[in-house]
């Protein structure tokens, strides 16, 4: 019986992973011991792949913006400079329409620009072939003596709930800071208990509860919206990749391969709109929430 089990395991290894195993492997983070042990729950925050990719891509985004500023000329701009100038003007226009405090905009507008560029580049990692970076990491991991079955890697940080909630939490902290800066500690504390139902002692507990619910709801929805859209896009790319993995020397195999190419190209083109829209929505909500911190109730 033991010999038969070993032989069956050997045949399974030769045949490669099933569709379910393939998807689970691609959705497991580097450093996620719970998923590696087969648990469907993922409450880890030490996803090293998300951390590394977020830092590297953030540095690259800052470098591109710095390069555009360094090479800016007063004459006829090049295409790269023109594109960056248009982006800066769009963000500045949106910031002026939402945050009416000119002093605050000196920080808020560059912050919004950074948020948009950073999230756009993070989202754009989804356009890479789903097996490219995991395959490279698997070669590095096995060369270091590791098992290829544990060479986990996810290259889209915004498809990681820890990253998106971290970003939304950063926006929340910024909003709290502006609440205190604009209204003062006493003024903001009074607003927490006096709005939205009215400044009466009997309404203070209900006002405070509604304020806390509003802050929590805005923060959770801010992060979950970005995560949900990018996670769904990543899943669709994995399902499309399975079509290519089903290729065989048959009419059905060639048909699946052709469908893989067509569907992958169509979804990648459409996904360019999604990654741009999600970055823009996250940036706009950041401006709206910071603008609300400037308003008095």
Q: In words, what does this structure look like?
A:
The chain is mainly α. The protein has one domain (17-294). Helices cover 75% and strands 0% of the residues. It contains ten helices and no strands. Helix 4 crosses helix 6. The longest helix has 44 residues, at 251-294. The radius of gyration is 24 Å and the shape is globular. The chain starts with a helix and ends with a helix. The relative contact order is 0.12. Mean pLDDT is 85; it is low at 1-14 and 34-41.
Name the helicity range.
over 70%
Rg (CA only): 24 Å
Distance between the termini: 75 Å
Spell out the helices and strands N to C.
HHHHHHHHHH
Low-confidence stretches: 1-14, 34-41
Largest sheet: none
Q: Return the domain count.
A: 1
Give the rounded overall mean pLDDT.
85
Helix/strand-derived category reads: mainly alpha
- Strand segment count: 0
């Amino acid at each position: 019986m033991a010999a038969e089990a070993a032989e069956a395991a050997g045949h399974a290894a030769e045949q490669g992973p099933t569709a379910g195993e393939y998807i689970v492997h691609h959705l497991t983070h580097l450093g996620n011991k719970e998923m590696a042990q087969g648990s469907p729950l993922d409450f880890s925050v030490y996803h090293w792949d998300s951390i590394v990719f977020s830092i590297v891509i953030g540095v690259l985004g800052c470098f591109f913006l710095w390069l555009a500023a360094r090479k800016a000329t007063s004459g006829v701009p090049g295409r790269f400079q023109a594109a960056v100038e248009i982006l800066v003007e769009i963000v500045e226009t949106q910031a002026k329409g939402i945050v009416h405090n000119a002093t605050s905009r000196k920080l808020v507008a560059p912050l919004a620009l950074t948020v948009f560029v950073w999230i756009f580049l993070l989202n754009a990692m989804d356009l890479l072939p789903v097996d490219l970076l995991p395959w490279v990491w698997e070669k590095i991991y096995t060369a270091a003596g590791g098992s290829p079955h544990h060479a986990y890697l996810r290259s889209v940080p915004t498809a990681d709930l820890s990253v998106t909630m971290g970003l939304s939490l950063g926006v929340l902290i910024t909003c709290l800071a502006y609440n205190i800066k604009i209204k003062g500690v006493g003024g903001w504390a009074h607003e927490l208990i006096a709005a939205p139902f009215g400044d009466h002692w009997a309404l203070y507990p209900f006002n405070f509860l509604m304020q806390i619910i509003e802050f929590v709801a805005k923060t959770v929805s801010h992060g979950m919206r970005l995560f949900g859209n990018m996670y769904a896009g990543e899943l669709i790319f994995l399902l499309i990749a399975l079509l290519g993995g089903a290729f065989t020397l048959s009419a059905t195999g060639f048909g699946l391969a052709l469908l893989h190419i067509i569907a992958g190209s169509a979804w990648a083109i459409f996904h360019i709109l999604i990654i741009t829209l999600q970055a823009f929505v996250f940036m706009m909500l950041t401006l709206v929430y910071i603008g609300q911190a400037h308003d008095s109730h």
